[in-house]
Amino acid sequence: MIKALRKKTQAGMLDCKKALVDTGGDMDKAVELLRKKGLASADKKMGREVTQGIIASYVHNNKKIGVLVELLTVTDFVARNEEFESLGKELCMQVAAVSPLYIKIEDVPKELIEKEREIYREQMKDSGKPANVIDKIVDGKLNKFYTDVCLLEQEYIKDPGVKVKDLIKQKIAVFGENIEVGRFIRYQIGM
Questions:
Q1: Residue pair 35/9 in contact by the 8 Å Cβ criterion
Q2: Rounded to whole angstroms, what are the CA distances from 109 to 21, 84, 95, 146, 173?
Q3: Model pTM?
């Protein structure tokens, strides 16, 4: 039973044993317990240095769009895992479909953020709204801008209620290791 749970969740042997004991041997509850525990510990694992990984690739079936994504993790054991490789492919398809320009908000040049902020303020200038309301509207528009240009802030194309960063956090919980997108590039014929 421990072996089956370990295979299903990728959790450690001791964690699987403890989860089965804590849930009275109920496999489904043990899986749920391990997932909850994993998501909680995923935040702690996000700081670990990533030195292993893969270059995932995707070429659209029309052969006019191609994407390469550098997906990094802590150990080569995880990097060679089929589910990790699948995550790389999923991220490639995300980049192909939605065309982000940056990985995360911190990658967006400060000058571009200020330029966008000024554009949004200019749009609101004649609205007659108080400054604090305008600031909130501008912040909301900036957040929308980030979802357009930052891969990690985008909604995952296969599950629109989940952001890409949350998908990666789920995988960190599964593997028990930090995972990061190192870089990506998107090619398109005629662009």
A1: yes
A2: 51, 30, 20, 12, 31
A3: 0.72
157: which residues sit within 8 A by CB, 6+ positions away? Answer: 93, 94, 97, 98
Which of 82, 84, 60 is closest to 70 using CA atoms? 84
3-state SS class at 159: strand
- Residue matched to tokens 């982000």: 100
The residue type at 28: D
Instruction: Measure the CA–CA gap between 83 and 118, rounded to whole angstroms.
Output: 43
Residue-wise pLDDT for 138-180, tens only, equals 999 999 999 999 999 999 999 999 999 999 999 998 888 899 9
Task: Show the domains of the chain with their CATH numbers.
Answer: 2-45 (1.10.8.10), 52-103+150-188 (3.30.479.20), 109-148 (1.10.286)
pLDDT digits (tens, 9 = 90+) for 61-70: 999 999 999 9
